[in-house]
Amino acid sequence: MTIGAGLGLSGGSLAALAGTRHHEDHLGAAGVPAYRPFHVRVERVTRLTPSFVRVTFGGDDLCCLAAGGSDQRIKLVFPDRDGGYATFPAGEDWWEPWRALPPERRNPVRTYTARAVRPRRRELDVDFALHGDGGPASRWVLGAGRGAPLLVIGPDSRHAGPTAGAEWSPPRGAARLLAAGDETAAPALSAIAEALPEGLDARVLIEVPDPADAMPLDVPRGVRVTWLPRRGARHGDLLVPAVRAAARALRAGRAAAVPAEVADLPPRPGAGDDEPLWEVPGERAADDGFYAWLAGEAGVVKTLRRHLVGELGVDRRSVAFMGYWRLGRPEID
């Protein structure tokens, strides 16, 4: 999950990742919290495509960062206006003290997806989608150099109990999979595609700003990845018809053809803001072997979910959808 303009996550999803429950609820048998700050530094900055930059972080602390799932969410805490962390609360119970600070004294905090975690090498890869909006994340990544410090809030592998922050979890029996989203979901979608086992009928659709943003992925047989460059079109203009075609084809058990031209457009992003931004089904038997994972701009994701559930009749418990961000709005703190 990456976006320069911030993410429109629900308060519940943020709280679950941040650790707002009582301290005792976060400690495992060994007294290790589920989530905590990790001190890291920039090791490498790699321009992947016109819209994506990969930052590789290093640090001894990363030996204990857990790789909880293909779409594992983490939080990055960026330096304040003075370039440091003087006012950022210490310890794992940082969330409420941070929220209690005056806005001008808070370190900017944004949610991302861990593209790759290599504990033995003490490394973490995070892919940033650049939007040129001048937000704290965009400013930081464009100026980041080797050795620059950062704080990462993530799961500790030593924790004895379960952790949250990963939603990709196809139920047992799901053999036809659809994963789709925009550039903010591209890191998660890429990791999901590469981690799928062979033998499944899986479609991964990724809408990006530019044709050059398509990146090669090492995916198993049966997994088909399609990059959908907008070329200036609205968010969702390509993704919505492509998801509709892929979902109908997967449920019918035939190869899906992504439409070359867009015939029908989704509602404007941001429509229906009273609807939930985040819904992940619990573990259950798959609906007819079909499972969908949708993430990206909230208005587009809601449109996709309404199509699958309302028009195609997919059981809502077989559709995970996440509004990573909302057009024109910053991340909900």
UniProtKB/TrEMBL annotation:
Transmembrane segments: none annotated. Residues 35-162 form the FAD-binding FR-type domain. PROSITE patterns: FAD_FR (PS51384). GO terms for molecular function: oxidoreductase activity. It holds the Pfam family FAD_binding_9. PANTHER family: FERRIC REDUCTASE, NADPH-DEPENDENT, NADPH-DEPENDENT FERRIC-CHELATE REDUCTASE. This is NADPH-dependent ferric siderophore reductase.
